[in-house]
Amino acid sequence: MSLLAHPAEDPADSRTYLLNNSTADRYRTAVTDGVARISGRIAATDRPFTGISVDGLTPAVDAVDLDTPLHDPAAALDELEEVYLRDAVYFHHPRYLAHLNCPVVIPALVGEAVLSAVNSSLDTWDQSAGGTLIERRLIDWTARRIGLGEAADGIFTSGGSQSNLQAMLLARDETCRRELARTTTPDDTRLAGLLPRLRILASAAGHFSIRKSATLLGLGAEAVIAVPTDEHRRMRTTALAAELERCRREGLIPMAVVATAGTTDFGSIDPLPEIAELAARHGAWMHVDAAYGCGLLVSRRRELLTGIERADSVTVDYHKSFFQPVSSSAVLVRDRTTLRHVTYHADYLNPRRMAEQRIPNQVDKSLQTTRRFDALKLWLTLRIMGAEAVGELFDEVIDRAADAWKLLHDDPRFDVVVAPQLSTLVFRYVPADDPDPELSDRVNLHAREALFASGDAIVAGTKVDGRHHLKFTLLNPETTLDDIATVLDLIAEHAGRYLAARPRPALSAR
Ligand SMILES: *Cc1c(COP(=O)(O)O)cnc(C)c1O
Prior knowledge:
It holds the Pfam family Pyridoxal_deC. Its cofactor is pyridoxal 5'-phosphate. This is Pyridoxal-dependent decarboxylase. Keywords: Decarboxylase, Lyase, Pyridoxal phosphate. With 510 residues, this protein is α/β, with parallel strands linked by helices. It has 3 domains: 3-90, PLP-dependent transferase-like (Up-down Bundle), CATH 1.20.1650; 121-384, 3-Layer(aba) Sandwich (Aspartate Aminotransferase, domain 2); 388-501, Aspartate Aminotransferase, domain 1 (Alpha-Beta Complex). Helices cover 42% and strands 13% of the residues. The strands form 2 sheets. The protein has a 7-stranded mixed beta sheet, sandwiched between helices. A 5-stranded mixed beta sheet has the order 1-11-12-10-9. Helix 6 (160-181) packs across helix 8 (209-216). It starts with 23 loop residues before the first helix and ends in a 9-residue tail after the last helix. Residues 4-8 have low confidence and may be disordered. The structure holds pyridoxal-5'-phosphate. Pyridoxal-5'-phosphate (PLP) binds at residues 100, 159-161, 164, 207, 209, 260, 263-264, 289, 291-292, 317, 329.
């Protein structure tokens, strides 16, 4: 059956595809039918993935003739089944345990439908009106939860990487401003001399986007000093203090200290109060990367973030621990005036006079220009289910990780690296009769790939101290301890099969 609401209309008439007052019914039918498909698909998903390979899927995608339209939404959705939906990776499945992808809450999906249909662009007031005010309320709400104080502000971004980049940009420019103000003749040549001396101190377990930011900001990758971590994979503050001292001795300028509240691999939370103390003592900007840990802001474990209120800037990824669809993220700052470092005026868009008239143009605070109204998803989430309900979901997966740790810890087939602080578990299968770490590397790599190819479950992999490990990232409260036990058995099976099939040295050679 065709999805066309008005069959009398000519499907080749391009104007019938525009959403407006005369096509609103047609829009509703097309989207409702599309939603019916995806809800049916989600209801019927019995594993996170089909296990299809790149080579298996590529021909179907390549075969689509993009210059020959189907003129029929139903036919296009049928085709989409083949090239995407049937073989997509489904994060809502309880045995999807790999990356920091969450199942999404329904109120946010309602928001997604609204925001893309109205299509506000949040760069200026004259393209968004209430959208701008809603985003600003959510920034204020988040800043208040963090405890950043009355002068706080921020902006929604595309993700934690962009939030971190913007935070590092502000830290760089604030540091340069301060350093240049120390001399009577600030000029550009001094600025050029300053940049190579800037240093960012981040934990060795911190996110790679900090290094990428340093490079993008013209500081060079060597500008990031990796501070060693303790046995819980938290930044060692004694090492941080020593590095800060070394910077001072060598004439380097510690422009920022980046604390991670929830490292991507271990969920470890750096000691925020001590780091705040050290950053303040050395005049360094304190950034807290809470891309993962931000869900604690609404959980019963809020105290784990104590010290975050002393940050100069904070990264939050609502699309991780607030169960929001991608993208939804923000960077918050303690002092709103620091956002001026990304303010540029364009006559056609946001002329200076508008700022003087106090017309709120969010582009003045953003690296982006045209920008999605992602804030609406969080708004409807808070208005429909409420912040505490979001926190309960996050608390549940943290509880589950603690139980899963006990399971792993008592299981002789596996070594688990640390007890979880949030909801990840990093572990490794250890062959019972052969402790050779290189063999274990190969076994774990194989087990992960074989599991992925089976589609029964998806787990992540990472390296710890140079050795291949496996990782569970739990963000789905529907994942039970039974699911986790099942996946461990599957991993052990794949590992066992690999070990049984491997060529063994002849007995005489031993
Ligand atoms: C995921 C993550 C990021 C990057 O966020 P994106 O939204 O993927 O760009 C940054 N820092 C940490 C600690 C993360 O876990």
